[in-house]
């Protein structure tokens, strides 16, 4: 198995991110601040071989999100995305 | 619950083991009664947290195998990994009556809703069958006649999950078509030598790209990338393919 295939996807980050986001993030559309790709968060690549979570653009590999838990704080870095768009009507349908 | 639960926080819930069933030599289905379970949609997963007496805890994601229901119970199927930290415990030591901590249901993208009417293509690699089985069960319990196809890539006949249920379903319901792709060892009557999913198999056993189908692909990361590339090469739009990756090892952190 090549190291380059050693990633998960945005689905696997959703449980941890649910501590911060009340709405489902996997179906949200995010835009990469580097290449401009607009993809569902579920499709982004997730790396967990690090102290925290790193989510990268599936197209260009740019870091979209970093999340680190310490005993006192949760650090969230979202500067890799220009926006996240959540379908509020679909969220209603989920509940 | 409509309209009330949009801001529902996903918190850890207590879940009691109410049943255990071996699927294969290395995989076990765990039935859980979950306190205040809000219900789920087929394809969603849960996070399971185990905490050692010294406070060390480990969290893993497992897809829900059971279809939506209102009885507060879910099933997960866990594959035991040789070097796993959590799966050996869940598949060998866990007993009926034990309690687990669980967070979910999680995910609103890799889901099949009962109001979807388009043909559905499921593509499973190994234990990637689990959330797709929830979709098949959801379809059955809803009495839906939406055409489903499943392409299930598995190492050998003995590694097939839910074998009897899939067999009886394919005998009773001809709008569900299953194709098995064996990668190492095939049954005696298999028309195809062992091998990975390839363009020929995609062409002969999945929906043509002009039917407006939605595809769900789940399995190890390399499997998902390969199957997705093949579907796109066969003319399917990326926007109609939903994926869930289990990683290189199959154990999701």
What this model shows, in words?
The complex is a heterodimer of chains A (95) and B (253). Chain A is 16% helix and 34% strand. Chain A is of the alpha+beta class and 95 residues long. Chain A has one domain (3-94). In chain A, strands 1-4-5-6-7 form a five-stranded antiparallel beta sheet, covered by helices on one side. In chain A, strands 3-2-8 form a three-stranded antiparallel beta sheet, with no helix packed on it. Chain A is globular and about 35 Å long. With 253 residues, chain B is an alpha/beta fold. In chain B, the strands form two sheets. A six-stranded antiparallel beta sheet of chain B has the order 4-3-6-1-2-5. A five-stranded parallel beta sheet of chain B has the order 9-8-7-10-11, sandwiched between helices. In chain B, strand 7 (120-125), helix 2 (129-141) and strand 8 (148-154) form a beta-alpha-beta unit. Chain B starts with 11 loop residues before the first strand and ends in an 8-residue tail after the last strand.
In short:
Chain A is an alpha+beta fold and 95 residues long. Chain A has helices spanning 10-17, 88-94; strands at 8-9, 29-32, 38-40, 45-47, 53-56, 63-69, 74-77, 81-85.
